[in-house]
Amino acid sequence: MKSGTLLLILLIIACLSISKAQGQQTNLFTIELQNQPFTRLASEIEQKSDYKFFFNPASVDSLLVTVSAVNQSAEEILSEVFKNTEYRYALDANQYIYITIQDIILTELPSDFYDRTGISSDTLPRQTDDKRFEDAEKIKVEKLISIGVRGTSSKPTASVAGYIRNRKTGEPVIGASVLIENPLTGVATDPNGYYSITLTRGTHALQIRSMGMKNTERNILLHSDGKLNIELEEDVLPLKEVIVESERDERVLGLQMGLERIDIKTMKQIPVAMGEADILKAVLTLPGVQSVGEATVGFNVRGGATDQNLILFNDATIYNPSHLFGFFSSFNADLLKNVELYKSGVPAEYGGRISSVLDVTTREGNKRKWGGSGGISPITGRFALEGPIMKDKSSFLIGGRSTYSDWILKQSSYDRVKNSEAAFYDLNLNISHEINSKNNIYLSGYTSKDRFKLEGDTAYSYSNQALSAKWRHIFNNKFFGVLTGNYSGYDYTISSDKNPVNAFDLTYSIQQLQAKADFTYFLNSKHTLTFGASSINYQLSPGTLTPVGTESLVIPDVLQNEQAFESAAYLGDNFEVNSRLSLYGGLRYSFFRNYGPRDVLIYQVGSVLDVTTIIDTVTYSADQTVSTSGGPEVRLSARYSLLKNTSIKVSYNRMRQYVQMLSNTTAIAPTDIWKLSDPYIKPLLGDQFSVGYYKIPERSQSRYR
Question: How many C-alpha atoms does 218 have within 13 Å on its Cβ side?
Answer without folding.
Answer: 20
